[in-house]
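Severity: low
Component: inverse-folding endpoint
Summary: output formatting inconsistent between runs
Steps to reproduce: submit the following structure tokens with default settings.
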């Protein structure tokens, strides 16, 4: 029979956890309102910068000009296939846990974007003693099971060409066997892709996750995931533009969580640099008005592009902050409800055990009395 004291301790422990989760839920709700207001206030500004960019690019159509951040699609493919630069990824996650699957979803999206999503029919793994005789063969076959060329995007084909020609075939789980597969890949000299990748991380979770997997993190920001500030976005954009202009990197991708509603958010990735002029040319066809720019369009574009890039990074940080807080709010609310349900079950079990103990004592008394007669 269960010990009543043990059950009482369990009930007390669950109630204490319930108090903590309830407090975290209330804190997340209060911070979520502020994060959502900041995001909603920033959305019109981001939309206006996008509109300005379209108008400027439509005004420059037909003119001959060169800008390090602007490429046509054909120029981009030709340049990145022959370039020696690296690919830079900006990953925005959380500083703290207890937010459900918020961070893990970002990491899955990051691994799918960086390493591609392969579906090998059979992948090997090291045994406990590391002595699997088929380990090398299985993993080498897995390296060749990457997504077929027909299923890759243009960016993935450029990245694969620029980083060595062979990327790891990761399972859908988001790169859990990254260390073992990377070891085999380097042994066969077919997957040095990780040497062509650089990361900027926002949030301790992102820094810890990618550092443990051997990625080169050139800059990390901690303590700002819930309360992002524009100065950090500006600092990141300055670093990115400096390295891109120098040719050290040839592509910049931003990976974050897009906020949709208090109960819905999804990971997303966007290309920050270079900007494809073909895309702006297509959207500029619907713009009828023509503006007169002073001193000239190129000078305005040169001043405007850094602000546009910093604005996109800051907007992604606001999206991520609202998504993190909403995820934590939902997770803590569910945890509080589950704790309440568990306390009810434990109370019921406690009463059953107590009643059974009382019944046994009564039976013993009645049996003793009958024995004396």
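Observed output (run 2 of 3):
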């Amino acid at each position: 029979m269960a010990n009543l004291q043990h059950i009482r301790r369990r009930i007390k422990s669950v109630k204490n956890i319930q108090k903590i989760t309830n407090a975290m839920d209330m804190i997340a709700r209060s911070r979520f309102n502020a994060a959502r207001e900041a995001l909603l206030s920033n959305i019109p500004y981001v939309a206006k910068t996008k509109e300005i960019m379209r108008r400027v690019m439509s005004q420059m159509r037909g003119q001959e000009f060169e800008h390090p951040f602007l490429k046509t699609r054909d120029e981009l493919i030709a340049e990145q296939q022959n370039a020696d630069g690296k690919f830079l990824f900006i990953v925005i996650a959380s500083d703290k846990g207890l937010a459900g699957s918020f961070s893990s979803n970002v990491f899955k999206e990051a691994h799918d974007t960086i390493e591609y999503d392969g579906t090998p029919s059979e992948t090997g793994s090291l045994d406990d003693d590391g002595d699997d005789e088929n380990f090398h063969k299985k993993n080498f076959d897995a390296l060749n099971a990457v997504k077929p060329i027909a299923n890759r995007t243009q960016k993935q084909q450029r990245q694969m060409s620029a980083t060595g020609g062979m990327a790891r075939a990761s399972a859908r789980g988001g790169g859990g066997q990254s260390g073992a597969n990377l070891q085999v890949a380097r042994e066969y000299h077919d997957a040095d892709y990780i040497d062509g990748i650089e990361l900027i991380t926002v949030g301790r979770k992102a820094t810890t996750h990618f550092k443990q997997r051997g990625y080169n993190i050139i800059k990390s920001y901690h303590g700002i995931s819930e309360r992002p500030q524009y100065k950090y976005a500006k600092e990141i954009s300055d670093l990115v533009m400096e390295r891109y202009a120098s040719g050290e990197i040839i592509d910049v991708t931003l990976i974050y969580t897009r906020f949709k509603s208090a109960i819905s958010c999804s990971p997303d990735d966007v290309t920050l640099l270079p900007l494809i002029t073909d895309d702006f040319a297509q959207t500029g066809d619907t713009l009828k008005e023509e503006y007169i720019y002073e001193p000239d369009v190129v000078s305005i574009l040169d001043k405007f592009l850094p602000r546009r890039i910093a604005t996109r990074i800051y907007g992604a940080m606001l999206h991520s902050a609202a998504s993190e807080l909403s995820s934590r709010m939902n997770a803590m609310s569910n945890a509080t409800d589950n704790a309440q349900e568990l306390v009810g079950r434990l109370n019921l079990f406690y009463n059953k055990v107590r009643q059974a103990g009382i019944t046994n004592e009564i039976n013993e008394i009645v049996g003793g009395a009958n024995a004396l007669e």
